[in-house]
Specification:
This is Phospholipase. The protein is an alpha/beta fold. It is built from nine helices and 15 strands. Strand 13, helix 7 and strand 14 form a beta-alpha-beta unit.
Length: 340
């Protein structure tokens, strides 16, 4: 569903805690072959009224955490389109296919490192056909395939994102830790990826996968910020997020019958209940009268739903060593505007 296909009347303002030094924009379209890369506010709801949008996706309500580590990897390059490049890596004898989006001006930027976004798909996109990832309704790859350069200007600086979208095979009912570890380590091995600006997001089953990664200490320390959409996670491990001071912007529709709102709220409440003296409080955006598809709004590349939008917010986040003091101050998110 496009931004203009739902009319929205916003009823509340989002407030998020300040975090790291702001950083800008996102960017470019998948190009040719290269080896692959990679909020104390009580999570007040930014509330909107919209027409409900749903999907046929039906992920499990709980994730099984597989604690095994990643194995050796090899990268295979396959077909390349004008916008997205198909890649594959092998890990513990498993082939993981993924789509890669590189900044269009990468060849001209020398050794410059780029902010990188890893996107985790939903249950319905498991398999071996990478095109299924592009077909995900209004996900990041759909925007890219339609020509959006993923280029954003934040605080006066324009940047482009590397986007990595790995595909899970048909077997697993969730994103296993070993699989997540392999993908994240592979992305961070790319010399053009900025290790301090690795972002993770996912929808539905991918929202669970996002929470799985940021509640696992070896992975949490590698992630600068995360955006789980229409997902839940292991509330008993939520304080790993607070310990590593990972900014979270979570999204959910209050009419979601596939992954209930309570699943998303449980995680946000668990993070806010953590005993750490100072950490970035999560933002929790709830869309009234919206079903499972809350990602059409969350992943919007403009400002019809959020200002800053998700991508611009992500680009303000940097990974911080957990032993650093958390600087005071807060950043207010401007209220979303009503679309024309």
């Amino acid at each position: 569903m496009s931004e203009k296909s739902c009319r929205t009347r916003w009823l509340a303002t989002e407030v998020m805690s300040r975090r790291r030094a702001p950083l800008p924009g996102m960017a470019a379209l998948f190009s040719s072959a290269r080896q692959g890369a990679t909020q104390a506010v009580l999570a007040l709801s930014a509330v909107c009224l919209t027409a409900a949008c749903g999907t046929a996706e039906n992920p499990d309500e709980a994730l099984s955490a597989h604690e095994s580590g990643a194995g050796s990897e090899n990268v295979t390059e396959t077909s390349t389109s004008a916008l997205l490049a198909e890649r594959a890596l092998t890990c513990d004898r498993e082939t993981i296919g993924y789509l890669e989006h590189r900044p269009a001006d990468e060849a001209r930027t020398g050794s410059e490192r780029h902010p990188t976004l890893i996107f985790l798909h939903g249950k319905g996109q498991r398999g071996k056909n990478l095109q299924d990832l592009v077909n995900e309704e209004d996900g990041p790859l759909r925007h890219i395939s339609k020509g959006h350069p993923m280029r954003f200007t934040v605080d006066g600086k324009t940047e482009q994102l590397i986007v990595i979208a790995p595909q899970l095979s048909t077997g697993p009912e969730a994103h296993p830790l070993a699989w997540l570890t392999c993908v994240i380590d592979h992305v961070l091995a790319d010399e053009r990826v900025d290790p301090d600006r690795l972002y993770l997001t996912g929808l539905s089953m991918g929202g669970y996968g996002t929470y799985t990664a940021v509640t696992h200490p070896p992975l949490a320390r590698k992630i600068a910020a995360a955006a789980p959409i229409a997902g839940g996670g292991p509330a008993g491990k939520a304080c790993v997020i607070a310990e590593h001071d990972i900014p979270i912007w979570a999204f959910h529709g209050d009419a979601d019958a596939t992954v209930r709102l309570s699943a998303g709220r449980r995680m946000v409440d668990a993070i806010n209940a953590c005993p750490e003296a100072s950490f970035t409080r999560p933002i929790f955006t709830i869309y009234p009268s919206v079903g499972h598809n809350s990602w059409s709004r969350a992943y919007s590349t403009g400002h019809a739903y959020h200002d800053p939008n998700l991508y611009e917010w992500l680009l303000r986040q940097r990974r911080r060593p957990t032993d650093e003091a958390h600087p005071p101050g807060a950043l207010e998110v401007a209220p979303p505007v009503t679309p024309p």
